[in-house]
Specification:
380 residues; alpha/beta; 7-stranded parallel β-sheet; globular
């Protein structure tokens, strides 16, 4: 089949949305499907199958947008029409301007439409300092529905959590599938050599964008409160606008400074496998592929029980979660796992079994079937 994937945002694979989009694109191509990608990623200009559109000029806000690592696509109707000509189905990633226009064109031409739900309201309202406004977040979901999701034939939700949140707000049971974005098979338990400078340290890893809703400071505060603070090495894998703030905050709070770095996939697999514990303090999360990658390697997690995070459902028991934004409670959980290595080893084995449900090939097969079913239902 011929598939168009429309991405309002696509760049380096340093965030869950881009990773999910690229995983789907690669998987469909590997299965023999023709995939056309409409996106604003200039680095991909000239690559086969990519249709590049310009980015939005935000004027005086360009520096802020650039600092946040966002390149948002500008509507280019000519490029969209070229990409959508003769396709069997269109899949969109986020409900922004390019997607809205793409849906308009697809409906004109009776093209089946599926749309991913990869943007939590708080991912946007965080940037306008209204992340905790229930009214504003609810309004964002209503806007997403008004301009995008009411017009699509099937919605892809990565988790039941975000499905329940969105459908609960709009009060409608739209046609949808709940399918995990899946974990790449490269993320497996292996022997990884720990760097000499980290020998003797208890390594705690967190992979997440350096942004407010990921709550890095809660983990920093928890390590400061830990009985073993002088032996803990934090690794913050990722990138983002709050890096300088977090580095400064850590200098004030901790004797052993965290390692801040963006790692390649190969490097990340090694880091996970030589770490001792994975902590996910984020308050806002649709799925958190990074957490799934960690547990797929058998790394034991401690996860925030935030009601606005789907990641909390990855906790196998109460030792694997802590009270949201409670650094004292997190410190107690960290200390428990440090002092109970045998329990940590048992829990690691349990997570290796649990992670099988997020098998990448299985999830991508389900995504392919969603597209096929949507085409057939549209024809029928």
């Amino acid at each position: 089949m011929k598939v168009a994937v429309v991405c309002d945002v696509l760049g380096k694979e340093n965030n869950g949305t881009t990773i999910a989009a690229m995983n789907l694109i690669r998987s469909l191509r590997a299965k023999g499907h023709e995939v056309r990608v409409v996106c604003p990623d200039e680095e991909r200009r000239g690559e086969e199958g990519y249709y590049i559109v310009p980015t939005i000029n935000f004027g005086v806000l360009n520096n802020y947008v650039q600092k946040n690592g966002v390149a948002l696509a500008k509507v280019d109707e000519s490029t969209l029409r070229s990409a959508l000509e003769g396709i069997d189905v269109m899949h969109t990633i986020t409900p922004f301007f390019l997607t809205v226009k793409a849906i308009e064109i697809a409906r004109e031409n009776n093209i089946p439409i599926t749309s991913g739900f990869h943007c939590q309201a708080e991912n946007f309202t965080n940037h306008i300092f209204m992340m905790n406004s229930k009214r504003v977040n609810r309004r964002m979901y209503e806007i997403f529905y008004k301009y995008t999701y009411q017009y699509v034939d099937c919605i892809h939700f990565p988790t039941q959590f975000i499905c329940d949140v969105f459908l609960g707000v709009i009060g409608k049971d739209l046609n949808h599938r709940v399918i995990s974005n899946g974990v790449n098979k490269a993320f497996q338990r292996k022997q990884a050599e720990r760097p000499a400078e980290l020998e003797g340290k208890f390594i705690i890893l967190f992979t997440g964008r350096y942004s407010k809703e990921k709550s890095h400071t809660v983990l920093i505060d928890a390590v400061k409160r830990s009985k073993y603070a002088d032996d803990i090495q934090l690794i913050f894998a990722g990138s983002g606008p709050q890096r300088e703030h977090l580095e400064e905050y850590a200098r004030e709070q901790l004797k052993i400074q965290p390692i801040f770095n963006f790692f390649s996939r190969e490097e990340m697999i090694d880091v996970i496998n030589y770490s001792d514990l994975y902590v996910h303090p984020a308050e806002i999360e649709i799925e958190a592929i990074s957490c799934l990658e960690a547990i797929s390697c058998g790394l034991v997690p401690v996860i925030s029980n935030s009601k606005r995070s789907a990641t909390r459902f990855f906790a196998l028991d109460n030792r694997n979660h802590f009270r949201c934004n409670d650094s004292r409670n997190l410190a107690a959980k960290i200390d428990y796992w440090i002092t109970h290595p045998e329990e940590r080893a048992k829990c690691s084995e349990n997570y290796l079994g649990y992670a099988k449900r997020f098998d990448f090939d299985l999830c991508m097969d389900q995504m392919e079937q969603m597209l096929i079913d949507t085409i057939n239902e549209k024809k029928g």
